[in-house]
């Protein structure tokens, strides 16, 4: 399942993601992964959450490479229950026009391999197309 947090910059999406991830640590038996653009959130997240900082992987430059990276994370730990992806439009050159395909691919990965994805998107809801209705919106 893919769940979304949508809103403009400064609307509290990151704080909500941190809260949800920290809350999941005690509620889930498996692993939690939090993919962030940089290292700034590491101290806010529970030490049992695996934090992946994308600035350490600057050669991931498009959605295909990013999906491959997600596959790599999943293949390294088959117990992952949730993967949080913070502000996907801010890195890996994923643009609004690529978002529908990217989320569809995440949904397929979730169905086949099991982890839920919680993705934050820094746009206004009305900027997204009707495809967004098939995902659970958390805010």
Write the layout of secondary structure elements.
Blueprint: E1 2-6, H1 13-27, E2 31-36, E3 50-53, H2 63-76, E4 80-85, H3 99-113, E5 116-121, E6 136-137
Parallel strand pairs: 1-5, 1-6, 2-3, 2-4, 4-5
Provide key terms for this protein.
6-stranded parallel sheet; 3 helices; globular; Rossmann fold; alpha/beta; 139 residues
Structural notes for this entry:
It contains three helices and six strands; from the N terminus they run βαββαβαββ. It has a single domain (2-124), classed as 3-Layer(aba) Sandwich (Rossmann fold), CATH 3.40.50.300. The model has no long low-confidence stretch (mean pLDDT 90). It is globular and about 35 Å long. The longest helix is centred in the N-terminal third of the chain and has 15 residues, at 13-27. It has a six-stranded parallel sheet with strand order 3-2-4-5-1-6. It has helices spanning 13-27, 63-76, 99-113, and strands at residues 2-6, 31-36, 50-53, 80-85, 116-121, 136-137.
Sheet-strand content, in percent, reads 15-25%
The CATH architecture assignment turns out to be 3-Layer(aba) Sandwich
* Low confidence ranges: none
Q: Strands of the largest sheet, in order across it?
A: 3-2-4-5-1-6
Termini, distance in Å?
16 Å
What is the strand tally? 6
| Helix coverage percent | 25-40%
Text of the CATH class: Alpha Beta
User: Could you report the average pLDDT, rounded to the nearest whole number?
Assistant: 90
Secondary-structure-derived class = alpha/beta
Shape: globular
Continuous helix count? 3
Give the CATH topology.
Answer: Rossmann fold
Q: Describe the largest sheet.
A: 6 strands, parallel
- How much is the radius of gyration in Å? 14 Å
| Element string (H = helix, E = strand) | EHEEHEHEE
């Amino acid at each position: 399942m893919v769940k979304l947090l949508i809103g403009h910059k400064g609307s509290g999406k990151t704080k909500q993601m941190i809260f949800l991830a920290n809350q999941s640590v005690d509620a889930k038996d498996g692993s939690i992964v939090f993919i962030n653009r940089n290292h700034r959130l590491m101290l806010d997240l529970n030490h049992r959450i695996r934090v992946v900082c994308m600035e350490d992987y600057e050669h991931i430059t498009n959605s295909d490479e990013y999906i491959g990276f997600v596959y790599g994370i999943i293949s390294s730990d088959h117990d992952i229950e949730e993967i949080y992806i913070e502000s996907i439009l801010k890195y890996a050159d994923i643009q609004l026009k690529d978002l529908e395909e990217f989320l569809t691919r995440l949904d397929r990965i979730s169905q086949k391999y099991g982890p839920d994805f919680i993705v934050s998107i820094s746009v206004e809801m009305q900027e997204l197309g009707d495809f967004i209705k098939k995902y659970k919106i958390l805010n």
